[in-house]
Structures are given as C-alpha cells and as structure tokens.
Amino acid sequence: MNAAIINIIKNNRNEIDKLWSRELDAFKSQTSIMTPHMYSQLNNEFLSLLIHHISHGDISADGTLERFFDKVLRSNMPLEYLTQGLQSFRRIILEMIFQEENLEKDTAVDIYRELDRWMDPILHSMVQNSSQIWERTVSIQKSALLELSAPLIPVFQNISVMPLIGTIDTERAKRIMENLLEGVIQYRSEVVLIDITGVPVVDTMVAHHIIQAADAVRLLGSTCILVGIRPEIAQTIVSLGIDLSLFPTKSTLQKGMERALEITNQQIVKDK
C-alpha cells in the first residue's frame, strides 16, 4: 500500500475513530443482542482490521477479515453494517487524502485509484462469505422443512395418517415415499391414510407420485386410502384420465378413518 496512505492513517487515527463511530451509530438500534459496549467493541475490531490490512496489503494472508465477516453475519447484524462500514472507511480516508496540502493532484488521484483497488477484494470476500452463509442457512432450513413436510402419524393400532399440505414436487415426493415406507414398517401399519386436503393442485405429476406411494405400501402388505378428495380435484382427476381405481378413495378423513377401522376390525365404543 502507498506509504502516503499509511502515514495519513497513522497521523489521523483519532479523527478516523471519531468519524467512523459517528457514521456507524445508525446501526445501534438495529441489533437487540448487543449492549452499547459490545457494539463499540465490534466497531473497534472492524476498524482495526481494516487499518491492519491496508497497512499490510494482503487481506487473504491470515483470514481474519473473513472470520470477522462470518462472526458479524452469524450474530444477525445486517449485511448493510459491513457494506456501510467499508464505504465509510473509504470515504473518510479519501477526504483526508484530498485535504493534504502537500499532495499533488496526480499523486492524489493515483492514491485514490490504489485505495479503490484495495477495497475490491474486501468487498468480494464479504459478498462471497455472506452468500455462503445464506446458502448454508437455506439448505438447513429446507432440510428441516422436508423433515416436517411428510410426517406419518400413528392414530390407532395399525392405522396411520400422512397429512400433506402445499405443493408436491419431485424432491418432496421422494421424501413422502421414504417416510411412508419407513413408517409402515415402524408402526406396523395395516392401513395408511394419505390426506390431500391441504394440497392445492393435483395434476398428473402429483397423482403419479401418489399412485407410486400407494403401490409401494401395497407391496408391503398394507392398504392405502386416499382421503380429502374435493369436488374440483375429482373433476381434475377425471379430466386428466388418471386411474385411481387400484386403491380406495374417500372424500374426508373421517370417512377414511371409518373405513380403516373396518379393515382392521376395530371400532370406537362410546362410554355410557
């Protein structure tokens, strides 16, 4: 890094601290997990890292900036805190550069360009780091949602229900099949009710996945009953020419449960 920039930073460190803190004060109200003291320490660490790396010139040498970005984002601080911090640092240094009376115009422009080039890899590193965290978070959340998206619930002896809500795509259909077959074995289900009341659209692909699931259950020696068929879904199934004759269907979960009790030779007896 140009020695003139380093000298400007060293000679104006206190002023830089003051201007830096003032510009980042706006983010104090955006974090509820940090005390004012903790937030001040975070600012100081951020500024010290920037000054350290501008002095040594290589931001990737020890990975301290990347680790700092990771820590900030994981503490639920907004990404804007980092971008604003970098832009504020650039602006403060540039203003101090152009205030120097001993610098010639051409020299000042060269310093500006060098500082600008120095900022680019930091911005790139920050964006890359935040993107990786975002992708990991989305992946974890997606996996968690998939785990909850197709539960098989035992409700009576040898009777289980799988309530389906929302759109069924290929990945979710695979999860449905896995949970269904594992649950049939685990709960020794003789009858499985697949409830599609909460499925907004049943097209050819969805029906194909459901038929596959029902066939797999039948191969395990159990009966699959499809329940929750609304009039509009019934009309769609007929118009698409989808054959659901291989396994029982009922319009409501209640009717499906009554049929399941009959198949398993069970009944609900009311207390007198």
Q: How is this structure best described in words?
A:
The N and C termini lie far apart (90 Å). The radius of gyration is 32 Å and the shape is elongated. It has a five-stranded mixed beta sheet with strand order 1-2-3-4-5, with helices on both faces. The protein has two domains: 3-147, Globins (Globin-like), CATH 1.10.490; 153-263, Transcription Regulator spoIIAA (2-Layer Sandwich), CATH 3.30.750.24. The protein has 272 residues and is of the alpha/beta class. The chain has helices at residues 3-11, 13-24, 36-56, 64-74, 79-99, 105-149, 170-187, 204-219, 231-240, 253-263, and strands at residues 153-156, 159-165, 191-198, 223-227, 249-250. It is 64% helix and 10% strand.
Properties at a glance:
272 residues, alpha/beta, Globin-like, Transcription Regulator spoIIAA, 10 helices
